[in-house]
């Protein structure tokens, strides 16, 4: 009985300690407001360095809500976009890039941000026969980039991405042409064969993308 009583006391002490620690943690979080912009910026970059992107997103929200006109906002958006791209979270990266483009259109770094958006879409092109709209959108974004920023230092990288997305587009049209052949629709097959050749002249040089067996059955 004495032994049970001691065990109960230990459990009560542990529970009380947990509750106090929890309250203290909540109190610390509640006090996280009305801080200088540099405080939020430094906290965000540390969280990114610690691979805690969810916390970094929350910290950026605090920076943005408390300091709407801070000169640290554009840099923060770019840092977060790059961080999410590193983690292959391309939708979130695009969210921050779109926010930058919307708010800082006349920025001197706007060509870099638009390049990052094209890069994020290109890297997010994972399913060769299912991301058709993303592929078309990326081709259109590249066309606009070339028109608006012909002297951009990122043009060589844009040209590389442009070549690859056009090869992917041609390969997609070839796949559709082959499908129509199997369905015994030669006219439709010829239309897509011609589209592929217009997109990329030497279609025979395009190396077929390797698709994992568990995805190939859905392609």
UniProtKB/TrEMBL annotation:
InterPro entries: BamD, BamD-like, TPR-like_helical_dom_sf
Protein's UniProt keywords contain Signal: yes
Pfam families: YfiO
PROSITE patterns associated with the record: PROKAR_LIPOPROTEIN
Keyword entries, A-Z: Cell outer membrane, Membrane, Signal
Annotated signal sequence range: 1-21
Name under which the protein is recorded: Beta-barrel assembly machine subunit BamD
Keyword Signal on entry: yes
Source organism superkingdom: Bacteria
Domain named Outer membrane lipoprotein BamD-like: residues: 39-189
């Amino acid at each position: 009985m004495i032994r049970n009583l001691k065990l109960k006391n230990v459990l009560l002490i542990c529970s009380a300690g947990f509750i106090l620690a929890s309250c203290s943690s909540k109190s610390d979080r509640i006090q996280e407001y009305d801080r200088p912009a540099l405080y939020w910026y430094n906290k965000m970059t540390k969280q990114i360095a610690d691979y805690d992107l969810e916390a970094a997103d929350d910290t950026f929200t605090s920076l943005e809500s408390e300091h709407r006109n801070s000169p640290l906002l554009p840099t923060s958006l770019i840092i977060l976009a790059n961080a999410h791209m590193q983690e292959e979270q391309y939708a979130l990266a695009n969210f921050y890039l779109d926010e930058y483009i919307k708010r800082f259109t006349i920025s001197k770094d706007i060509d870099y941000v638009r390049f990052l958006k094209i890069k994020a879409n290109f890297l997010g092109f994972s399913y060769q026969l299912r991301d058709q709209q993303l592929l078309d959108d990326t081709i259109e974004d590249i066309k606009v980039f070339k028109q608006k920023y012909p002297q951009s230092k990122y043009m060589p990288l844009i040209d590389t991405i442009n070549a690859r997305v056009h090869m992917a587009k041609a390969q997609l049209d070839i796949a559709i042409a082959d499908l129509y052949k199997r369905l015994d629709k030669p006219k439709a097959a010829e239309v897509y064969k011609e589209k592929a050749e217009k997109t990329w002249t030497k279609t025979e040089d395009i190396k077929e993308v390797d698709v994992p067996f568990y995805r190939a059955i859905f392609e």
